[in-house]
Design a protein that fits this description.
By secondary structure, this protein is an alpha/beta fold. The protein folds into two domains: 6-123, Up-down Bundle (Butyryl-CoA Dehydrogenase, subunit A, domain 3); 130-244, Rossmann fold. 52% of the residues lie in helices and 10% in strands. It has helices at 6-24, 27-42, 55-69, 82-93, 98-105, 109-123, 138-150, 162-172, 189-197, 232-244, and strands at residues 130-134, 154-159, 176-180, 204-208, 224-227. Helix 7 links the parallel strand 1 and strand 2. The longest helix has 19 residues, at 6-24.
């Protein structure tokens, strides 16, 4: 099978990194998966199944294959399998159709459709935790708070600045942090998170309109990134995976 042009593979890297990081829960592990897949594909050392020709889908497939080979796709106690997690991330975080996601993870379209319905039914009651929101726009912050609650979580604080975020985190010790990057006059969301993680570990999901800026692989970057605007289901899946999935997050 002919490998997609090198330029197409390079353009697909940010999306593959986002998927791999969310799948593993780690910037380092996710980026390592993507780098290995890219090397193999550019050298024509591996061939994706028939029908997977798009560069992004080829990389998603390669990442999934390597992740499965590491034995991380085990069945968790909450009943959502590793393959279901992959489907949820591909269809929601990466906006891949169920039909296209099925060959990427190695199942039939019928299986993919059935597993997605079951996984989405289980999400609402799974992995509830205390969430702190870092967002300087009041209306957006209210929308995020409503979405977080609708996902079954508890909001323990909403911060509009770096200083406020650090104070709330110190007081409440949240189980998950949902953070915007640009806080206007209030500073920078990544700086706030960096300070918080020095004394309290919690999974972090960054919400940004420019995800490619956080997915270069050139510096310490977040494992979980959601692109604005996003659907409620995307947040539900990302929060679930951040709280329950993969290995521990790298510091950002």
């Amino acid at each position: 099978m002919t490998t997609p042009p090198r330029e197409d593979m390079i353009r697909a890297l940010p999306y593959a990194r986002r998927y791999a990081r969310a799948l593993t829960g780690s910037q380092h592990a996710g980026d390592a998966l993507v780098a290995a897949c890219l090397r193999d594909m550019l050298a024509n050392a591996v061939a994706a199944p028939q029908g997977i020709t798009d560069a992004r889908h080829r990389l998603y497939w390669g990442v999934t294959q390597r992740f499965d080979a590491q034995g991380q796709g085990t069945e968790p106690a909450d009943g959502i399998s590793g393959k279901q997690r992959q489907l949820l991330l591909l269809t929601s975080l990466e906006d891949v159709s169920a039909e296209d996601a099925a060959p990427i993870i190695g199942v039939t379209i019928a299986e993919a459709s059935e597993w997605l319905v079951d996984a989405r039914d289980r999400l609402r009651a799974s992995a509830a935790t205390d969430v702190m929101i870092i967002e300087d726009e009041p209306i957006i912050a209210m929308d995020l708070e409503e979405l977080v609650v609708s996902c079954g979580h508890r909001v323990v604080g909403v911060a509009a600045s770096e200083a406020e975020a650090i104070a709330i985190a110190t007081r409440t010790r949240p189980g998950l942090i949902l953070a915007d990057i640009n806080l206007g006059l209030g500073g920078d969301g990544t700086s706030a998170v960096t300070t918080i993680l020095k004394s309290h570990y919690a999974p972090v999901i960054f919400v940004t309109a420019y995800p490619e800026r956080l997915l270069t692989g050139e510096a310490i970057e977040p494992a979980f990134v959601i692109t604005k605007p996003f659907e409620p289901l995307t947040l539900a899946i990302a929060t679930y995976q951040a709280v329950t999935g993969g290995v521990q997050l790298d510091s950002v």
